[in-house]
Amino acid sequence: MNKKLLWTTAALLATAVGIPPSYAESTSTIEPSAVNESATPISTPRATNAVKVGEYQSPTRQSNSVVARIQPHQLAERQAATIYVKNIPVLTFLDSDVVSSANANPQIKIATNANQADLSKADTPEADSAVRRATKVAAKINQLHLNGVDASKITAKWKANAAPDQGDRYAINLNNEELVEINSLTRLPDQTHDLSEDALQATNRLRRLLGNAPPLQEVADKPAPKPVAVAPQISVPQTKQNAGAILSGIASWYGPGFHGNRSASGERFNQNAMTAAHRSLPFGTKVRVTNKRNGRSVIVRINDRGPFTGGRIIDLSAAAARVLGVLNSGTAPVQVEVLGK
Predict the structure, then answer these.
(1) DSSP bridge partners of 66
(2) How far apart are CA 217 and CA 261, in angstroms?
(3) Is the separation of the CB atoms in 291 and 301 below 8 Å?
(4) How does the average pLDDT of the chain come out, rounded?
(5) pTM (two decimals)
(6) SS3 assignment, position 153
(7) pLDDT tens figures, 264-323
(8) Less packed terminus of the chain by CB within 10 Å, N or C?
(9) Domains by residue range for the chain, with CATH
């Protein structure tokens, strides 16, 4: 009985005092165990390492202030690093040089504001390496979240003073101060092959994830496109060969940044409708898409063209992706069954 009273008193004192977390990159957390009122005193808890990515710790804010992490990987034979905000891919950074697979490091990296002065100790010493650039931006994003950023102040802008030999460049700004530049080496993870669209979608993802701000419809200061001759749309008739066809591949999704824009079919894209983009199926064709990972299915109508990224066979609306459970992963292996019109 005395032992039980002693343990209870110690637990109450520890809870009342509270110890503020440190600025370390990795902190020690205690795994909870079941409480048995009639059991003997609790044994020494087992510690695990909880990695905090991009975290600036303070006595008043807990680990939920960390919303961004970076995942190094290889892309097109280059070292790359993708920033995930609340598990949604937002930005991908690429090295300028091709690297061998032996040099790739797939480990999750730390990007704390407390260790910004030690960034020179990163795996890659180059100042413009993908991991290093992603680390800096992830730390900025976490600091903005910690400070309670007004997400409606996050905007996308065309950089009018871009050097001619570097091509188009865009910036994601906060209160007219540049957060990150969108260019050939910094882009949307599921790229659209249009840097202005990459900048717009990445901006809208940050606006939504950091404060649920409404999406922007266009990039500020973007020059009007030069008129070009457009070939007339050729309608492909529905054939018996199309109906019943079963395709397999990777599905992706799109929504923020495209909502309200004209789709290739001419109708307004609605990210909340059950629609999808396909490269060749006639507009109006209905298909059943099944996520091979979880078995979920959804029927969508083709009203747009795409995706144009290699290996992907269908681009789902945000609503359809939510039903299939693809929102967090960004992509998933699917089976596409053509149902006809």
Answers:
(1) none
(2) 8
(3) no
(4) 74
(5) 0.48
(6) helix
(7) 888 888 988 999 999 889 999 999 999 999 889 999 999 999 887 767 899 999 999 999
(8) N
(9) 68-211 (no CATH), 246-340 (2.40.40.10)
